């Protein structure tokens, strides 16, 4: 499989996006193991030749989708902050956790985390993406004398955040993204005075 990303035309990108959307819909309906390439292309309204222009097989499509969403989770959490800026948690508002809106806007994909028969390796990836983002980009300022920049603490934060988001998904996104964001900010403020994005 090619690791190097080739620059695709907007039309090719749209085609790939349609194939991914069809794939996600079908997994939600019948489980990963029961989805075929034929069903993906029929749902997306393409033919098998188009599918094989971009993907070797169903696992290749699944791998690209996982990698893309993993990267977007990491980017979404940091894009709004200037590198080196110091942010006080008391100044945070509902626009400060763009990850929540990202999950909500892509809930068909995040519902895959709730399935038993889902994309192989998907379970645990949300927490891992959040952890890597915290480790690589965030320097936290603790309230009190605690080492909240340690790996165990950031793992705890990542799994707690992912757990809250997955619990939200289990309820069918009953609460609004604003309510979930406010909950996360309240929790964050309880132990963090501020942070810097590197």
From TrEMBL:
Residues 36-55 bind DNA. GO terms for molecular function: DNA binding. The keyword Acyltransferase does not apply. InterPro entries: Homeodomain-like_sf, HTH-type_Tx_Regulator, HTH_TetR, TetR_C_Firmicutes. It holds the Pfam family TetR_C_8. It comes from the Bacteria. Keywords: DNA-binding. The keyword Membrane does not apply. Residues 13-73 form the HTH tetR-type domain. This is HTH tetR-type domain-containing protein. It comes from Planococcus maitriensis.
């Amino acid at each position: 499989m090619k690791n190097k990303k080739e620059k695709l035309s907007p039309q090719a990108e749209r085609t790939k996006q349609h194939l991914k959307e069809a794939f996600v819909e079908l997994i939600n309906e019948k489980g990963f193991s029961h989805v075929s390439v034929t069903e993906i292309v029929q749902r997306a309204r393409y033919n098998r030749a188009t599918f094989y222009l971009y993907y070797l097989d169903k696992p290749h499509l699944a791998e690209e989708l996982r990698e893309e969403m993993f990267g977007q989770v990491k980017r979404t959490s940091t894009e709004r902050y200037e590198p080196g800026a110091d942010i006080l948690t008391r100044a945070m508002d509902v626009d400060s956790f763009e990850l929540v809106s990202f999950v909500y806007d892509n809930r068909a994909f995040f519902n895959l985390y709730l399935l038993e028969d889902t994309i192989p390796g998907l379970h645990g990836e949300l927490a891992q993406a959040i952890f890597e983002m915290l480790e690589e980009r965030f320097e936290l300022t603790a309230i009190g004398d605690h080492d909240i920049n340690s790996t165990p603490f950031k793992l705890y934060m990542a799994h707690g955040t992912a757990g809250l988001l997955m619990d939200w998904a289990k309820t069918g996104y009953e609460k609004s993204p604003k309510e979930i964001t406010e909950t996360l900010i309240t929790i964050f403020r309880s132990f963090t005075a501020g942070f810097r994005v590197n």
